[in-house]
Amino acid sequence: MHFNDRLLPLTGGVRQADVAAENYRDLLRALEARWPGLGEALEDSSVAVDGQIYQDAWLEPIGADSEVHFLPRIEGG
Amino acid sequence: MAEAHDFRVVGTRPVRPDGADKVTGRAQYGADMNLPNMIYGKVLRSPHAHALIKSIDASKALAMDGVYAVITGDDFPTVGGGALGGEGGGSMDGLAQNIMARGKVRYHGHAVAAVAAKSLSVADAALAAIEVEYEKLEVVLDVLKAMEPDAVLIDENCFTSGLPEKPEKPSNVAGVMTLARGDLDEGFAQADVIIENEHVLPMAHQGYIEPHACTASVNEEGFATVWASSQGHFELRGQVATLTGKGISQVKFVPLEIGGGFGGKTKVYLEPLAVMLSEKSGRPVKMMMTREEVFRATGPTSGTVARVKVGAKNDGTITAAQLWLAMEAGGFSGAPHMPAAMAVFAPYDLENFKVETFDVLVNKPAVAAYRAPGAPQSMHAMEVALNELAITLNMDPIDLRMKNAADEGTQAPYGPKFPVIGFKQCLEAAKKHPNYTKPVPEGAGRGVAAGFWFNIGQQSSAEVHINDDGTVQVVEGSPDIGGSRASMCIMAAETLGVPYEAVRTIIGDTESTGFCNVTGGSRTTFATGLAVVRACEDVIASCKARAAATWGVDEDQVEWQDGQAVPAPGVNADVKPLKLADLAAKAHKTGGPIMGKASLNAQGAGASFAVNIVDLGIDRDTGKVDVLSYTAIQDAGIAIHPSYVEGQYQGGAVQGIGWALNEEYIFNADGVMENAGFLDYRIPVASDLPMIDTQIIEVPNPSHPFGVRGVGETGIVAPLAACTNAARDALGFLVRDLPLSPPRVLAAIDQQGA
User: Fold this and answer.
1) DSSP label of B569
2) CA distance B373 to chain A (A)
3) Using the beta-carbon criterion (under 8 Å), do A72 and B179 form an inter-chain contact?
4) Is A44 close to B419, i.e. CB distance below 8 A?
5) Which of B81, B589, B599, B688 is a plausible cystine mate for B461, CB 3.0–4.6 Å?
6) A5-71 maps to which CATH number?
7) Which DSSP category does B141 fall into?
8) Which residue on chain A is closest to B408 by alpha carbon?
9) B548, B567, B602 — which closes off a domain?
10) Do both B513 and B478 map to the same domain?
11) Distance of CA B118 to the CA centre of its chain
């Protein structure tokens, strides 16, 4: 797990962490349990799992060695 | 031109199905809907850029013959502050206050009241009869002054988001974003050359040809039907429902053809007003903006101040890069500062960088999305700095970019590692392109720049119905902005194995098909196309089951090849293949009509990169800049309909050229836009430009069955810097700010001469 600057206030300054989760929804729950408020804050974020960007993808599987980044939701014109 | 690969229909260039209607006038656009007993709505707009509304007296207007209703902010419910768009697209509360001011006007042209009357002239007279008492406030126009701690506040409840702690005091800075990696000081210390620039870019409008227009009719039960052009009738239905206090099921939104949007038609302006006026008057209400209203009161994109610093070694390796970017939000928060931050360094593999971007309130129209929101402004600064680096290091500008180019596995500045991308392929193509290898015309200048956009997926739905004769009806919910009907037909024909001519695609209204997000983010060919492919696969599954039942074999003993069901290899069945038409003709005997459907949240939209080359000629006596040649090279993944892909490249290039050379909002000291018309706000017309040359690069996106990457937005990113760099080459010195309009260029020439 990699957290960008916008999330550091919620993680107490932690930029990187290992979290066990089988899918994105599980990951959000795990993060909320560890850092209350973080899971909720991430509900509307985009997430990149192993380089692929997902939006609103609760059921997206996450592998044991997956690299996960959160980023602001991307829309466009 | 793209290759057709192994596809049968994908990569061909059939005639667009909506073309004849659009060029003959049969197509119905936003202003074309007429209903019995229809009346007309018009908006009273603020004459001040910043003022408190002390009172509104509409009694004289309401007493006029032929006036049916007047509405003000008091007629609308208060809504929460939910996000409109994730990357800084503002809030629902801001949108509510933008469509109709509540106690305060934040820009010249802000809606204050609206009337519905029997004719436009009566409506105009009624507007003139409404008495509004204002208390003028100091106008805040300069983005840097707006950021100062003692600046006059535009919103007393605006507290900067994105900081570690909520600030104690409100300010005009609505949001901050910081991205950083590595050690910036160490990176600059390693540099042999450092380039630093400051650029001021103006507020610019999307310039769609069709002004906003809609018709609304509310029945006795409060059910509203809205006819309008937009980039996404499902999302706009939701906005209308929220802003008028109705449930989503109380609003039906019928999409009409759209005459350009480019991001600017992803949110409502007139629609909730027309619904409210219809509800009050009991009649259908049509509303149409004038061009002047479009300029003054709909979303342009942000004017910006950018400070960039880039360091490199003598071999061209970038050691550090830094961007500080202040973006005008207009009267409500929502400048695209986050995508601007994430995009600026995306094409490059950087160890040390820092980006700070700011969403800043000013007394100008509230900005809206515009094609790759934020990227043209931020990447202009970086791409100009790279050109200066190349000149200083005596390197070819494409070689410099290639040396630092991102590739598969590169850690993008916004976090993740890139999957397969096509930036290096674009650079290689540019280096070899005849428009780059040919000599620069005498007295002219050549510029190069890169572009990038993330692209998105989001939600789409589609149904595919098979007619009795085997022809195909695709129904989906993404407005056709750039030829998507044709692309959907192609993908359906390719998947089903039928001719292109056998497929027809319609855009369903909000009660006729499933939810689709807006046509934006370059998502429609990717995401709605994916839904169409999946729906076709659903049809194929049904056809295989019917063929199996007809032949008396198991379903897994049937395959679908070239548009017909055939026995799988090794299956001993003495049967004749069944074409789609054969199965459709017997559908009533095999379970009823054949149809397939899909709804999905598409993931894995592949990023698209571009490289542009431009030759500019400059008249040193007048400052006029002429585009001598322009080349847009971009990765499309796989081009479904190459002509439309090329059209997107050309359209993006032309809009970017307009922004680079002429387009700008010009405000007087009172915050009044002084050039609110196409005569004075100069967008390029066909006679201004040469044919835009294009080259489609195809690095397939593995997340789409045909390899599609969105192409709609990347094309506008590179032209701003490419033109600045070409002007630098022609003039021998850098003009940092845009547009490169004759007055600015002439003044720069004069200053240089002095």
Assistant:
1) T
2) 6
3) no
4) no
5) B599
6) 3.10.20.30
7) -
8) A51
9) B602
10) yes
11) 36
